[in-house]
Design a protein that fits this description.
With 287 residues, the protein is an alpha/beta fold. It is built from eleven helices and seven strands. It has one domain: NAD(P)-binding Rossmann-like Domain (Rossmann fold, 3-Layer(aba) Sandwich). The radius of gyration is 18 Å and the shape is globular.
């Protein structure tokens, strides 16, 4: 159930569901974000670049955030050719002083952020027996995947509440629904972000601020490249993955996730020991 075949199915499942959602949607991305300011992290490549390009082309002012300025400049040029309004903000999000200065500059330049996309992330694949002396793996993963998004949210949410509109889209992993032995540090950091926003959503719902968790399946980016196991696995393109982020912006659901993933979560609540046995079986096989 949780081998590569399962990831094939869930990747196809989400792509199909997003296509069906577009057919019945009453609003377009342009309807929602034209003239608004969108801050997206990890915008220099992969999912972030594809999403930023799509959003910029729809008429938003896009604040592009990532460590590598040359790549950000390339993305900005691409958005400009599509008629968008990009602004480049190079920043190492694990340097909290730099993060605070960056988001303060964004707020000063644009008067606020209407949509925050927490896309930047770090994935570490390391088994428990390889991690006994590597607490720093957990520390640095939490810094980027959880604490940096929290810091950004605390900076931009007050303005969203005041303006009575906001969308925060957090890119998580389908592994948060199915489990991913060997990726414990990564999945734990993403799960923390989802748990936090489930609670914050209750407090901000009357302010028309929405938090969406996108449970992203496998995407063909540099993040999965080092793992030979995924070399020939079915995966979304960055452009397909960007559509899941777009769904989070337009529809502002609490979660963007394939039905198969939601069903797996339900099974885990009903019979967790059985699913643990299945996951352990595939883990022992190296899948």
């Amino acid at each position: 159930m949780f081998g590569i075949g399962w990831f094939h199915k869930i990747t196809r499942c989400l792509d199909t569901e997003l296509s069906l959602t577009r057919l019945f949607r009453k609003q377009t991305l342009q309807d929602v974000i034209a003239g608004r300011t969108v801050l997206i992290t990890g915008a220099s490549s992969g999912i972030g670049r594809a999403a930023a390009t799509r959003i910029g082309a729809a008429g938003a002012t896009v604040a592009l955030v990532a460590r590598r300025e040359p790549e950000l400049r390339e993305v900005a040029k691409e958005i400009e050719t599509l008629g968008g309004k990009p602004y480049v903000y190079p920043c190492d999000l694990t340097d909290f002083d730099a993060l605070d200065a960056m988001v303060a500059q964004v707020l000063a330049d644009h008067g606020g952020v209407d949509v925050l996309i927490n896309n930047a992330g770090r994935s570490i694949r390391r088994r428990l027996d390889e991690s006994y002396e590597r607490f720093h793996d957990y520390d640095r993963t939490m810094q980027l995947n959880y604490l940096a998004p929290v810091r950004l949210m605390l900076a931009v949410v007050p303005g969203m509440r005041e303006r009575q509109f906001g969308a925060i889209v957090n890119v998580l992993s389908i592994a948060n629904m199915a489990g991913a032995p060997g990726y414990a540090a990564y999945t734990a950091s993403k799960a923390a972000l989802d748990a936090l926003c489930a609670n914050l959503q209750v407090e901000t719902r009357s302010d028309n601020v929405r938090f969406s968790s996108v449970f992203m399946p496998m995407v063909r980016t540099a993040m999965i490249a080092p793992n030979e196991l995924y070399k020939n696995a079915r995966a979304l393109t960055p452009e397909q993955a960007a559509e899941a982020i777009v769904a989070g912006i337009i529809d502002r659901p609490r979660r963007v996730a394939p039905i198969l993933g939601r069903f797996t979560v339900l099974l885990d609540q009903i019979m967790p020991e059985k699913l643990d046995d299945i996951r352990a079986k595939f883990f022992r096989k190296g899948l």
